[in-house]
Design a protein that fits this description.
Layout: E1 2-5, E2 13-17, E3 22-29, H1 34-48, E4 56-65, H2 67-83, E5 89-94, H3 100-110, E6 116-119
Parallel strand pairs: 3-4, 4-5, 5-6
Antiparallel strand pairs: 1-2, 2-3
Length: 120
């Protein structure tokens, strides 16, 4: 899996294996400008959706994400939800059992999309 962004104490690590259709975002997401931070991934996804794999998997392993990051994550899922063939997008939302906030964020996002499967 290639690292797109290494991440830091305030930003998530973003990794992708476009040959296998797997994208993973993990860690804490508090970037100064979430739109700019996630822009390189958006640009890579623009290319990917022109020739996607049979299945695409998004793995979110977030410890915390601020409002701007949640919006950026929503926009990533929205792009794939709207552009990939119906039923080919899987979203795996990882959370600590006692982290209700992260679980609820995933559930709120799942309620917005009908073209993908959310797993918790």
């Amino acid at each position: 899996m290639d690292v797109i962004t290494e991440g830091s104490k305030r930003t998530p690590k973003i990794r992708a294996d476009f040959d296998d259709g797997i994208i993973e975002i993990s860690g804490i997401s508090l970037p100064e400008n979430a739109y700019d931070y996630f822009l390189p991934l958006h640009e890579l996804l623009d290319n990917y959706i022109t020739n996607p794999r049979e299945r695409t998997t998004l793995n979110f392993k977030m410890e915390y994400l601020n409002t701007g990051s949640a919006l950026s994550v929503r926009n990533l899922i929205l792009k794939l939800n709207n552009k990939l063939p119906k039923g080919t997008l899987d979203v795996n939302w990882f959370y600590e059992l006692d982290d209700i906030d992260i679980l609820e964020t995933g559930q709120e996002l799942a309620s917005l999309f009908d073209n993908c499967t959310f797993q918790y």
